[in-house]
C-alpha cells in the first residue's frame, strides 16, 4: 500500500513538472547578492528590491551618485573608483512594480568594449536571471537601452 501511495505521489509530481515545461523559474535575487557582497565588506544595504535600493542610495548620506558625462554613465570613473577598492554599486530603476537590477562593480578585471553601450564598460558582480552571482561584463547584466534609468554610486561612509 505504501509503495502505491509513493508511486502516485511521484506520478503527480512528474505530471506537475512536465506541465511546467520541465523548467522551474528561479526567483530574481540580484538585490540579495549585492547585499551579501557588500556585507562581506562591512557595508550594509537595506533588504529591499533593486528599485528600492536605488531609491535608498539616492538619499543616503553614505552613498554618492557618480555624475554622468554628457548624459552618459561615467563607466571610467566607476571603474577607477572600484579599482582603488571603493565600493561601487550600479543600479537600474524600472520605476514600476517590476523590479530593476543592482550589481557591484569590480575593479579586478580591465574594462572591455561593449557593442551595445558603444563604450568601455567595467565588470560587475551580480546575478543574471536568478542564476548564481558571477563576475560579468556590465553589458551582460544591464541592457544599454536602460542606461537613462541606470546610476553608479560610490560608498563614502566609513
Architecture overview:
By secondary structure, the chain is of the alpha+beta class. The chain has a single domain, classed as endopeptidase fold (from Nostoc punctiforme) (Alpha-Beta Complex), CATH 3.90.1720.10. 32% of the residues lie in helices and 22% in strands. The chain contains five helices and eight strands, in the order αααβαββββββαβ. It has helices spanning 2-19, 30-39, 50-59, 75-83, 138-141; strands at residues 63-65, 88-92, 101-106, 112-114, 119-121, 123-126, 134-137, 150-155. A six-stranded antiparallel β-sheet has the order 1-8-2-3-6-7. A hairpin with a 7-residue loop joins β6 and β7. The longest helix has 18 residues, at 2-19. It starts with a helix and ends with a strand. Residues 10-26 have low confidence and may be disordered.
In short:
The chain has 158 residues and is of the alpha+beta class.
Structural key phrases:
158 residues; alpha+beta; endopeptidase fold (from Nostoc punctiforme); 8 strands
Largest sheet: 6 strands, antiparallel
Q: What name is given to the CATH topology?
A: endopeptidase fold (from Nostoc punctiforme)
Total DSSP helices: 5
**Poorly predicted tracts of residues:** 10-26
Computed Rg: 20 Å
Order of helices and strands: HHHEHEEEEEEHE
- The CATH architecture term is Alpha-Beta Complex
What is the number of independent domains?
Answer: 1
DSSP strand (E) fraction? 15-25%
Question: How would you write the strand order of the largest sheet?
Answer: 1-8-2-3-6-7
Number of strand segments: 8
For the record, the CATH class is Alpha Beta
CATH superfamily: endopeptidase domain like (from Nostoc punctiforme)
Derived from helix and strand composition plus strand pairing, the structural class reads alpha+beta
How would you describe the shape?
A: globular
Alpha-carbon distance between the two ends: 65 Å
Average pLDDT number? 86
Amino acid at each position: 500500500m505504501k509503495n502505491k501511495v509513493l508511486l502516485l505521489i511521484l506520478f503527480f509530481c512528474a505530471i506537475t513538472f512536465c506541465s511546467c515545461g520541465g523548467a522551474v523559474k528561479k526567483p530574481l535575487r540580484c538585490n540579495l547578492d549585492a547585499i551579501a557582497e557588500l556585507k562581506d565588506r562591512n557595508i550594509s544595504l537595506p533588504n529591499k528590491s533593486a528599485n528600492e535600493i536605488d531609491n535608498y542610495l539616492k538619499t543616503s548620506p553614505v552613498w554618492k551618485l557618480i555624475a554622468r558625462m554628457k548624459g552618459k554613465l561615467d563607466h571610467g570613473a566607476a571603474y577607477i573608483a572600484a579599482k582603488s577598492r571603493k565600493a561601487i554599486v550600479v543600479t537600474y530603476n524600472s520605476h514600476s512594480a517590476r523590479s530593476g537590477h543592482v550589481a557591484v562593480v569590480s575593479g579586478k578585471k580591465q574594462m572591455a568594449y561593449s557593442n551595445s553601450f558603444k563604450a568601455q564598460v567595467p565588470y560587475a558582480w551580480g546575478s543574471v536571471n536568478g542564476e548564481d552571482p558571477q563576475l560579468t561584463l556590465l553589458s551582460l547584466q544591464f541592457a544599454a537601452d536602460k542606461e537613462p534609468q541606470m546610476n553608479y554610486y560610490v560608498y563614502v561612509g566609513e
